[in-house]
Amino acid sequence: MKIKSIYIITLVLAFLPKMQAQELLPLEDAVKIALENNYDIKLAKNELKIDELNNSIGNAGMLPTINALVTDNNSITNTKQTQADGSERTLDGARNMNLTYGVGLDWTVFDGLRMFARKEQLNILQKQGEAELKLAILTKISEVYLNYFDLVQQQQQLAAIDTAIVISQERVTTAQNRFSIGKASKLEVLNAQVDLNTDKSLQLKQLETLKNAKIRLNEILARDVQTEFVVANEISVDEQLKYDELKSAAENQNPQLQAQMLTKNSAEQQLKQVKSGRYPTIRITSGYNFTRSEASLGFITQSSNRGFAYGFNASMPIFNGNLQNRNERIAKVQLENANVTLEQQKRSLESQLNAAFASYTTNLELTKVEAQNLKIAAQNLDITLAKFKIGTITPIEFRTAQQNFLEAKVRYSNALYLTKIHEITLKELAGSLRF
């Protein structure tokens, strides 16, 4: 039987019982679970809700304030009054009352356009919240992808070791048969058994690595870390990525770059708000009030008023100890810093794209080389196994061919996984990572 067929059969036999006993976790389901359960995403969603609630014309200062008020003052006094003609009037326990209630309106109708700059800044803050949520989602999807395909890789390597064990077991059986008919020494049987035990030791270590990888993925999915599952058996790589397309997408979709652009826009609006301090502020006031007063002694013992009151006030800053100039200079420096940080973010993004794309193309070619090398190693092992069965090669030569096949399989799996990592990184930087 050819080595490729042995590997496929081993893969099926190794994981079919597990897939029947455990849940198969497709990549799409893993991403869905992470997006629903992950704590960072929940926090980002709540922060966005806060930004949405804050983004209102009332919070920007465009609406009036209306207040209802009531004041009730009472007193009991001993009163003595001297009239103009010299006569005196006295009253002990004189009761006095003054009651005022009504509704008042206060509205700033002009503040140097500060309220409009504030409203635009609130719009920007909401967009920043959306960019931060997108960043949290992209980061988590990328993390799920990387850990999921790491599991696939570990699963493939376990299957390769299982294949080696099947071959080693066949070698032990062959050596025992040859020893029983006197064509091989006991040493050959013992060597074959030692190599089989070595492969079983590798299998145990790989099972531990696979288990730890499952625990990590369960933690990312924010579920019980002991949840058992199996993943897909293959890693498919997108070989059609183009640098210019990725760069264009990153300039328009990268959430970190978008957030920094919004930070710059927010700094511009902040400067406008500070500059508004040079202009006058105009407020209008109005209200409807009722006043009633009573006195036990005096010329007027009772009075009441009701009616509409209105007016306006305006103020113009003249000098405030140069605070206005200082605040404007600080706002301009903050805007300059935002521009510098934006340029730095652009250069950093371009550098990351270049490095990731170079690694992607290199590993893409490396994967093709390792695939060809694996094919050759499998053919070599097929021939070596056939020769070993008829006794024309030594056990050492057979073991070397077996190890070469295992190493070729591991290298191919690693190259494929590394290519996938760089593909995921590129799509994450471009803001186009989907599932």
TrEMBL record:
The protein, known as: TolC family protein
Listed InterPro entries: OMP_efflux, TolC-like
SUPFAM superfamilies: Outer membrane efflux proteins (OEP)
Protein source organism: Flavobacterium cheonhonense
Compartments in which it is found: Cell outer membrane
Signal peptide: 1-21
Entry-linked Pfam families: OEP (PF02321)
UniProt record similarity statement: Belongs to the outer membrane factor (OMF) (TC 1.B.17) family.
